[in-house]
Design a protein that fits this description.
The protein is built from 13 helices and no strands. The chain is an all-alpha fold. It has one domain. The relative contact order is 0.17.
Length: 365
């Protein structure tokens, strides 16, 4: 099979695992920060988000680098990215705004404290990971979407570098990981904290450099030709390495390296026609809901927690209640994905393509 046309279904299933892991962790993080939310097996450092960044870089490169003989259409690329992330991002902000307004109507004006207007604008323009004032408020996990957006802006440069280094693919991957390591070291020297701690401030830098590691991983994937059995072992080793690196805070580059090895190995298993449980149709379907799970889980948790408070039911955070909250988010993700996310994405991309066709027809007329 032509590898450029290969679908890596295991990576779609992986998105679901990462999304529910983040959602499950955030129940304790929000409502029992020093108790259940502080358990090491839930936190596991930074592995969750940085593996997401590597995964995004890998998948986008798989789509666009294989078309490197054509000029890179940055406008088309950005419209596709905006169509992918923006509609549900706006929906999440709208839910939060409606939640706060309802609270004020019910006499809970205190609920609006900590949600400054400048933070809303920072989120609207995807600037919260660039250090914009108030960016931490509103839907706080969306800092990662803003950080990934920084990677989108740099993506034409990444594709250019990948094309220039196509004769030295594995070396290029090594340079990408070295770049993460060096940025992390400089970040610590100047700001006195690890790159993995950057979210609202310098999160954009973190997202961009770790996404580049994903780009390098996809380029090196051309030379990563191992058997399905060995790829399975490498996938386990990569996952374990990323988790250990995160738990022991040994550096973002090592988390990225482990995540990249896992992603490359899962992709190789799919390319060999072997498949994993992550590639099962059910997991692929759930993977399609992963963005809705990620972007909507905090507003959903806030609504559920306040509803319990209103009816006088105490909320005790533990493994089972966290699972219950997470399952509710998964349940609502399906209709949101089908009724809002997919139609909006198609409408935005379709409108852009029609505009491009009309412009081309006008030029040739």
């Amino acid at each position: 099979m032509d590898i450029s046309r290969q679908r890596f279904d295991s990576l779609t299933g992986l998105r679901f695992i990462l999304a529910i892991w983040i959602a499950y962790f955030h129940v304790g993080h929000m409502y029992d920060h020093d108790g259940f939310g502080a358990l090491p097996y839930l936190e596991l450092g930074v592995a969750r988000v940085d593996v997401f960044f590597v995964l995004s870089g890998f998948v986008l490169t798989h789509i666009y680098w294989n078309n490197r003989n054509r000029p890179f259409a940055f406008g088309d690329f950005m419209v596709a990215r905006i169509a992918r992330i923006y509609p549900l991002h706006i929906l999440a902000l709208g839910i939060m705004l409606g939640f706060l307004v309802l609270g004020m109507v019910m006499g809970r004006a205190d609920m609006a404290e900590g949600y400054p207007l400048e933070g809303l604008f920072a989120n609207l323009f995807m600037m919260q990971s660039f250090g914009a004032p108030g960016g931490a408020a509103w839907n706080f996990p969306a800092w990662a979407i803003s950080a990934e957006f920084a990677g989108y802006l740099a993506f034409p440069l990444y594709i250019w570098l990948a094309t220039k280094m196509k004769a030295h693919r594995t070396f290029f991957f090594g340079l990408c990981l070295l770049n993460v390591y060096l940025v992390d070291q400089v970040h610590q020297m100047l700001l006195h904290r690890e790159l993995s701690s950057s979210t609202m401030a310098w999160g954009a830098l973190r997202g961009a450099v770790v996404m580049l590691a994903g780009v390098g991983a996809r380029v090196a994937f051309e030379d990563f030709k191992v058997s399905g059995f060995r790829a399975g072992l490498y996938a386990l080793a990569g996952a374990g390495g990323a988790l250990l690196a995160a738990m022991n805070h040994v550096g973002t580059a090592f988390v990225a390296a482990g995540g990249a090895l896992m992603i490359m190995s899962l992709a190789r298993i799919d390319a060999e026609g072997k498949g994993t449980f992550l590639a099962h149709p059910t997991m692929c379907a759930l993977g399609g809901w992963s963005y809705a799970i990620f972007i909507l889980h905090v507003p959903t948790f806030m609504i559920m927690k306040n509803a319990l408070d209103i009816v006088g039911i105490p909320f005790v955070v533990n493994a089972w209640t966290s699972l219950g909250f997470t399952l509710v988010v998964v349940a609502i993700a399906y209709p949101i994905h089908k009724l809002i996310e997919e139609p909006c994405r198609k409408a935005i991309r379709g409108g852009w393509e029609k505009r491009a066709r009309r412009s081309k027809e006008a030029q040739t007329a």
